[in-house]
Design a protein that fits this description.
The structure holds two protein chains of two kinds. Chain A has strands at about 5, 10-15, 20-25, 30-35, 45-50, 55, 65-70, 75-80, 90-95, 110, 115-119. By secondary structure, chain A is mainly β. The termini of chain A are far apart. The relative contact order of chain B is 0.35. The chains are: A mainly beta, B mainly beta.
């Protein structure tokens, strides 16, 4: 597609439930990123995929968070046993990469995010 | 203390004013510096990308990087109401690969 698509745009869930957030990157972008943005804050890194594999998952806050990208395109961020503190906007981005998997000389393209509210 | 600091604002200016937005950072390994614009309920949109120290100009926007002071700036000339948004600085080091570290964002309001 023309841009990064994220679904759903809004998700309200009850504390303790499981949620899945989907990201459809720009066609041909091999790198995919998940960030989390709390109200009034800048985005914080969660995980980065190069192709199908998670190249860096150091930003995942705990083992309730997991992400997959089985075919190297669409990615799903999964949150188990949601807590009220998980409420935030979850942003997905994609980019081209140059040699050695390092991001090429332009920034990411972000989607509009999924606004998750845990009640 | 956060690695990247940014005044949250809001910054309110009249239309046509010159706007100066700034970030300071603590990690001397940062080499790539970006400015993103984020409208309400939208994802960040890349405005400017600079490598190392120096200036870069693109239309009404000028980005400056002073690595010796660990200070970056974004200037907007002839500001327009459509420039009203949150401006985020972001940076990364070569060793960190593709991970960006963002500032908290400055909310700008340009009044007609």
């Amino acid at each position: 597609g023309a841009g990064v698509s994220q679904t759903p745009s809004n998700k309200v869930t009850e504390k303790g439930k499981y949620v899945e957030l989907r990201c459809d990157p720009i066609s041909g972008h091999t790198a995919l990123y998940w960030y989390r943005q709390s109200l009034g804050q800048g985005p914080e890194f969660l995980i980065y995929f190069q192709g199908t594999g998670a190249a860096d998952d150091s930003g995942l806050p705990n083992d309730r968070f997991f992400a997959v990208r089985p075919e190297g395109s669409v990615s799903t961020l999964k949150i188990q046993r949601t807590e009220r503190g998980d409420s935030a906007v979850y942003l997905c981005a994609s980019s081209l990469t140059g040699p050695q998997g390092i991001q090429a000389n332009y920034g990411y393209t972000f989607g509009s995010g999924t606004r998750l509210t845990v009640v | 203390q956060k690695e990247v600091e940014q005044d949250p604002g809001p910054l309110s200016v009249p239309e046509g004013a010159i706007v100066s937005l700034n970030c300071t950072y603590s990690n001397s390994a940062f080499q790539y510096f970006m400015w993103y614009r984020q409208y309400s309920r939208k994802g960040p949109e890349l405005l400017m990308y600079t490598y190392s120290s120096g200036n870069k100009e693109d239309g009404r926007f000028t980005a400056q990087v002073d690595k010796s002071s660990k200070y970056i700036s974004l200037f907007i000339r002839d500001s327009q109401p459509s420039d009203s948004a949150t401006y985020l600085c972001a940076m990364r080091s070569y060793s960190a690969g593709n991970m960006l570290t963002f500032g908290g964002g400055t909310r700008l309001m340009v009044k007609p």
